[in-house]
Design a protein that fits this description.
The complex is a heterodimer of chains A (375) and B (409). Chain A is 19% helix and 21% strand. With 375 residues, chain A is α+β, with helices and mostly antiparallel strands. Chain A folds into two domains: 19-248, no CATH class; 262-366, no CATH class. Chain A has a six-stranded antiparallel beta sheet. A three-stranded antiparallel beta sheet of chain A has the order 1-2-7, with no helix packed on it. Chain B folds into two domains: 39-93, no CATH class; 112-408. The radius of gyration of chain B is 25 Å and the shape is globular. The chains are: A alpha+beta (375), B mainly beta (409). Chains A and B meet through α1 and α3 of A and α1, α2, β3 and β6 of B.
């Protein structure tokens, strides 16, 4: 019996090397050591392709991760679907696998990478010419019986396989772009606990949840192979998302890069996806009293004239989180612009300053009326 | 069967290798870091993770999120986690777990906080040293030992040196004992913030900017109340404030012994407090820390009420207060060579609660400490009409019950 089992296993692995089975494999337990065991995506030396029924998706506004591009996918076991919710992460069935592959356009044929707008995933629709990109890591969120489990996989230099790195990793990178000086930085792959640092959005239950798959983030058009379509309705047509009361009423965050929208809408969308997973009323940063969820009212909880609590060096010598009209006196812009681990925000997930994000929040604060009185 | 397994595993390895060429090995100096972080990830409730003797150099923050784990070194001078080369992580060690014990080790030179513990219950921190080894500097991390939003916490026999905010800090927590610790060369030696029921005793706080602080800050989930400070030795906390502007502790004048800020029900007794150039005891409102009422949540109480000071041994100090306002006040009231009395109150009080021009007895600042005097600095009046009148403050308050904490027995 053992022998039969082992032969079967070997055959399966050989198949994984040579031929792509149609759909991903859900592992109900254990820590698969290599990414290909999940069969979410495959690499054949030239192309990266998604497996059967693996759906790529995008967000209105996305987390900044050192200018990395991100290919996001979701796969829901056949015949099952996620439950829609207006404000919270959709409730996905056991067996769901969500992946996020972090990569950069390559600078020629070197290992250096380029800063460019993150739209290649959409343009290529999940199919990459591997020679043009540098794959860094693929993170999986897997819905198991006991809850969501996290798996960070780091790609090898040959881009043939990614290995599980539960303790995370530091990858030295060189990045350049038209509007930035060449920079050397340490790209940080989070360890499994650090995954929870963002994904355990309720610090009391510490339940791990996906952050992106919420109505307000997904409610946008995506250029699928066949046609462009709203992601929420596409997910419904594909049978992976349950009923939505009225699609037109679904909340929608601004695209923070869309200059046609107001600075306030863009900034709130940016703060939502970059900060609110910790800075919400029950999140890991509720110790600070700062709430950056999209429905937080304009007031001290949103940072307006709010004193820091435990910012330490993160205050940058400034008195309040936000001083209306005075971005240069606001702690927000200081901590966003910093790259010192003791003071920067977010605490995890970046080593570089996000200039465009800092500019947006600066613009938003500059437009605010009011002032902060002192005692 | 064994042989079949062996052969198969060799085959498997070969196949796996074919699928995934080895990536380069981790650098040598991070081997221990990888081992320790793996132990922290794989820990099971009940596990004891030991930190061997030696100085272990780490460059990333560590984290633990499994309940019921003990981390144990061989001594705070022997088992040292050094973060001099830290490139990532806002803390040295971040713990988000309950039933956690850490003991007999040191955490040095972290970029941010040394040891942060959030949202856990039944936490013991014992014989741990947190230190920035280059001495006091604004560049040092904020907190040494930093439990926040925790319940049932014992902090004992620890040493905290060089934090740019507080050496030993407990925030937004419930039912806490802080005893036999030593805090030196921090901005705040020991700080109890927005915490309910804390007993702080047998500690030594010296050479900080402020020795022991009890603070209640606005806009947080929990307001602080009930702290007992006794049998502490608090002396010569005269180090220049090196906190970051904007943080609450940056407003602490150098030479502050015990500071109560906007916190109610604080009992200070049987302490030795001496030689603080501003004052041995300061009682103040958040208004004295650059704060205005309209920035606070409406239910927040900014006034320190029911403060009871008795049976302490105060001496020296008050002769050279930090800050121009206080210097001018001291000179005006006591002359160039005089000194502030042992207790300095900024004078903010809740007029809405006054009955016939007086604060009800149960809410007063009561000083029943021999001939110890207090000055009311008249902060609300812009320091124009300070008073030494003690008539309303020679009083007694009902004593607070001791904290009951099974971990401490």
């Amino acid at each position: 019996m053992w022998r039969a089992f082992i032969i079967g296993l070997v055959t399966a692995l050989l198949c994984a090397c040579s031929k792509t089975p149609s759909e991903p494999v859900f592992h109900a337990q254990g820590n698969p050591e290599i990414l290909s065991e999940w069969n979410i995506l495959s690499v054949d030396g030239k192309d990266l392709r998604l497996s059967g029924r693996v759906v790529p998706y995008d967000l209105n506004s996305a987390l900044f991760s050192d200018y990395a591009h991100k290919l996001r996918t979701v796969w829901v076991p056949d015949g099952q679907m996620a439950e829609y919710n207006d404000t919270e992460t959709f409730a996905f069935p056991v067996g769901t696998i969500i992946s996020k592959t972090f990569y950069y356009p390559r600078d020629g044929d070197t290992d250096a990478v380029l800063k460019t707008d993150d739209n290649t995933a959409q343009r290529l629709n999940g199919r990459f010419d591997l020679s043009e990109v540098r794959l860094i890591e693929t993170r999986l969120l897997v819905r198991r019986e006991a809850g969501w489990a996290v798996f960070p996989y780091v790609w090898n230099a040959a881009q043939t396989e990614a290995k599980l790195k539960r303790i995370g990793d530091i990858i030295p990178l060189e990045i350049s772009g038209e509007d930035m000086d060449t920079a050397q930085f340490s790209y940080i792959v989070p360890n499994v606990n650090q995954c929870s640092g963002c994904h355990a959005t309720n610090a009391t239950t510490r339940e791990i949840l996906p952050i992106g798959p919420k109505a307000r983030h997904l409610n946008k058009d995506y250029d699928y192979d066949s046609a462009s379509q709203n992601q929420l309705s596409a997910w419904q047509s594909l049978g992976i998302l349950g009923p939505i009361s009225i699609l037109g009423d679904a909340p929608k965050n601004a695209d923070w890069t869309d200059s046609a929208q107001t600075a306030a809408a863009r900034a709130r969308a940016y703060l939502d996806i970059n900060c609110a997973h910790c800075h919400n009323p029950v999140g890991p940063a509720d110790t600070s009293g700062l709430n950056l969820e999209p429905d937080a009212p304009h007031g001290p909880a949103l940072g307006i004239c709010k004193l820091p609590i435990a910012a330490g060096t993160g205050t940058g010598g400034r008195d309040f989180d936000i001083v209306p009209g005075k971005p240069e006196q606001s702690i927000f812009t200081y901590r966003m612009a910093s790259t010192n681990p003791a003071e920067m925000m977010p605490e995890l997930g970046r080593s570089l300053r996000h200039d465009e994000g800092v500019d947006l929040v600066t613009q938003w604060i500059a437009q605010m009326d009011g002032r902060c009185d002192r005692g | 069967m064994t042989r079949a397994l062996l052969i198969s595993s060799v085959m498997l390895t070969a196949i796996l290798a074919a699928c995934s060429p080895e990536t380069s090995a981790p650098q040598a100096d991070t081997d221990y870091q990888d081992t320790l972080q793996t132990q922290l990830l794989d820990a099971q409730p009940g596990d004891i993770i030991t930190i061997p003797a030696g100085t272990h150099s780490l460059n990333r923050g560590l984290s633990l999120s499994v309940d019921g784990v003990t981390i144990r070194g061989e001594g705070m001078g022997t088992s040292i986690l050094s973060f001099k080369d830290q490139v990532a992580g806002a803390e040295g060690l971040l713990v988000t777990a309950s039933d956690f014990t850490i003991e007999d080790l040191a955490i040095e030179d972290t970029t941010g906080d040394a040891l942060k513990i959030t949202e856990g219950e039944n936490i013991i921190i014992r014989r741990v040293r947190t230190e920035w080894t280059n001495g006091p500097s604004t560049k040092n991390g904020a907190y040494g030992i930093y439990p926040v939003q925790t319940t049932n916490v014992l902090m004992e026999d620890n040493v905290a040196i060089g934090a740019s905010d507080a050496g030993l800090y407990i925030g937004q927590s419930k039912n806490v004992i802080v005893r036999r610790n030593r805090a030196e060369f921090n901005v705040a030696g020991i700080e109890i913030e927005n915490t309910v029921d804390a007993d702080v005793y047998d500690n030594i706080a010296t050479n900080n900017t402020g020795g022991i602080l009890v603070f209640n800050m606005p806009n947080l989930a929990q307001e602080g109340k009930r702290a007992r400070l006794f049998r502490n030795e608090v002396y010569e906390n005269n180090t220049k404030n090196f906190g970051h502007k904007g943080t609450p502790v940056a407003s602490i004048p150098a030479g502050s012994g015990i500071v109560v800020n906007s916190n109610d029900h604080v009992e200070i007794f049987d302490n030795d407090v001496r030689d603080h150039r501003t004052a041995n005891v300061i009682i103040s409102s958040v208004y004295s820390t650059n704060y205005a009422q309209d920035n606070a949540n409406p239910e927040y109480d900014p006034y320190p009420e029911a403060i009871y000071i008795y049976g302490n041994r105060f001496s020296g100090g008050g002769n050279s207060p930090d800050g121009l306002d206080l210097k001018a006040l001291k000179t005006a009231m006591y002359g160039l060579t005089g000194r502030f009395p042992d207790v300095l109150w900024d004078g903010f009080k809740n007029d809405a609660k006054m009955v016939d021009g007086k604060m009800p007895e149960a809410m007063r600042i009561c000083i029943n400490n021999g001939d110890t005097m207090m000055i009311n600095a008249d902060g609300p009046g812009g320091y124009k009409s300070p008073t030494k009148d003690m008539a309303d403050h020679k009083c007694e308050l009902e004593k607070l019950p001791p904290v009951t904490l099974a971990l401490a027995d």
